[in-house]
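--- STAGE predict ---
source: upstream dedup step, 1 unique chain passed
mode: sequence only
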Amino acid sequence: MKVTTRKAALGGLAMFGAAVLLAGCGSAPEDSGSTDGGEASDFLPCMVSDAGGFDDKSFNQLGFEGLTKAADELGVEPVTVQSDSETDYAPNLTNLVDQGCNLITTVGFALAAAAGESAEANPDIEYVSIDDTVDLDFDGTTDFENIKPIVFDTAQAAFLAGYAAAAYSQTGVVGTFGGMNFPTVSIFMDGFKQGVDYHNSEMGTNVQVLGWDGTDGLFTGGFEANDTARNTAQGLIDQNVDVLLPVGGPIYQSAAAAIRDSGREIAMIGVDADFTQTDPSVADLMLTSILKGIDVGTYEAVLAAGNGEFDNTPFVGTLENEGVGIAPFHDFESKVPADLQGQLDDLKAAIIAGDVEVASYLAE
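--- STAGE serialize ---
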């Protein structure tokens, strides 16, 4: 989707999210074990990354892992194409269509417009859209029947991470910044701020959030690990933050470099994957990570399609269906308050029960 205004994007996605959540999301995709492959011998699953690339240690990598796991079980060889910029999206999709792909998975909100055009032009090909509903006309439904959306109400998990950040902070200042102001990026930042604010109201603290005010914030303009990302992180560090949430694939690498250069005790929060596991080089910096089950969701969707059981029903990941969550504290377990995990368990239960509301475009 080429977003002309953030408000327009949020409006359409909010309508879709409300419709899906009211209809019920069902269970989170689960590893169903191996299959006999069924009709998979002639099945060709394919995937297009966004500009972050398949080695981003984040959502592109998770999508790739889900694809390859399903392909292995189906006994087929997947085709993947990496995008280096947004101008690659449409040509990459055309390339995969020309190669005879039966299922094409697009990774990321930025690919929505190109995915919609490709799906419309190729109704016999099945598509999986990770992180976008492909509701380009904003009527509350996915535009084409051959697209399955996999989206995540990440604000719920980010709320828990924000609460944890506020509980951990010693300076009383935490910060966040994103790659681009897409709803799938800002949802992390928004949930994070809500969690910090909730800790302040419940525990009598006064932790300040820099980088996101609830409607706008700091963005680097892309998802590359570069000087812009590093300088953005440094600007927050200079304002005394001691917890930093960079949202946008590889930009966390620039944040980590700025943290190490600062010589200060600054914790980082990862997104999409557990960075302690996907990138051990930053494990010592990780307070926690905000998780999205992209790998499991992709695996299930590809496996179903490969067995002739493609289902375009949208999947919306939540805390309740375990489509989102937060990683363990790992190296920080001894550094956080002893009762913090118990508080987070109770808070998670309250969010699931509806006793604590978390606002997001997928929950409106």
